[in-house]
Write a structure and sequence with these properties.
2 copies of one chain form a homodimer.
Chain A: H1 2-28, E1 32-37, H2 44-55, E2 61-67, H3 72-79, E3 84-89, H4 98-104, E4 115-119, E5 136-142, H5 149-152, H6 154-158, E6 162-166, H7 178-188, E7 193-196, H8 205-224
Helix pairs in contact in A: 1-4
Amino acid sequence: MSERVTIEKKVLSENDKLATQIRAQLKARQIVALNFVSSPGSGKTSLLECTLGALNQELQIGLIAGDVQTENDANRLLRAGGKMVRPIVTGGACHLDARMISRVLPELELDKIDLLFVENVGNLVCPSSYDLGEDMKVVLISTTEGDDKPLKYPGMFRRSSVMVINKIDLLGSSDFDMDRVKENARRINAGLKVFELSCRTGQGLDAWFGWIRSLAHTKKQRSKE
Amino acid sequence: MSERVTIEKKVLSENDKLATQIRAQLKARQIVALNFVSSPGSGKTSLLECTLGALNQELQIGLIAGDVQTENDANRLLRAGGKMVRPIVTGGACHLDARMISRVLPELELDKIDLLFVENVGNLVCPSSYDLGEDMKVVLISTTEGDDKPLKYPGMFRRSSVMVINKIDLLGSSDFDMDRVKENARRINAGLKVFELSCRTGQGLDAWFGWIRSLAHTKKQRSKE
């Protein structure tokens, strides 16, 4: 299997080179980029929908929505008011990679964008290995999953800067324990920033929107300086 | 990238050879093997726990529980009364493969087993490509995920024989539509057998247990003939 490992290393190093180019391209325009990762069904698209709904008037958000098959997520984001949404259909691949991002990036009007959100394929394993040139990975976990997910999928939680605990309106409908999930996550990554929210009821969204605003705000402030 | 594709094909063909050997080994002992696949958090371990709880006295069930990291799931299955449980920690790999199965199989007393359940890594993409020598793949989806999952992850639903819709006690807490998920699944795989259940409330479990019994029953009947 060593031949396979060598090829994987080569693919990853090619990916890293491309990711570095993307990062430079975004940084030159002071665009903050977030890579949203989670299991299928944790609510990435829902969170992006309500974020667009709330901030679309004040911020210019570019979106890249990846799926194995269908453009369902991209269409949902367009319906939610997304003005600059590009789908990537991986056609079987279990993650987005930097090459896919660099192909669609020229289709977005980067000079007009404050923030770039990338919605990765729903998968808690493979996307953790592929740098897309983002500033931060945001990992979602929902209260209907097990609270030991950070321990079982440590790579993703280690490489993320932010953890969003979604569907808090369903707390109590399972054994999911809020303190335990945070403790588990911080055992893997002590510096993880945590948001607790429900896209359905709106609980906790203000803090999330505030943080998103602060990312873009930084850019606008800088450009005035 | 063609070099990578060639290597992938080689890995898959080696996997298929091993899977064929495993299948022959199980068939010789009339053991029916199920490969449980789903997103992280759909409830594979919960379903196996309650199945063990209900059928442990009448059937000998061997279990192989795969996880990227931790033996949490294997430990839960042991606590649920599993007598023959073996963990596989993939250490980063996003799926089980036939080589991993063939390494732990000798640790199970195959002559005493009626059924073999393999709990795959939580991932709706990669495990679909790896035959483990099972008779059937059982894909789980829970009502807290999107009902378009079969369209977005068609490979898994196409290669599965059974779809378990779990957490039906939470129906109504989201936009998940039972008819739509079945319609979506059958567009991908018209022959899919469907169970609707809740491990939490017990709803629908009798039909599931009955089907599991019928798989083992077939074996016991045959051995009398």
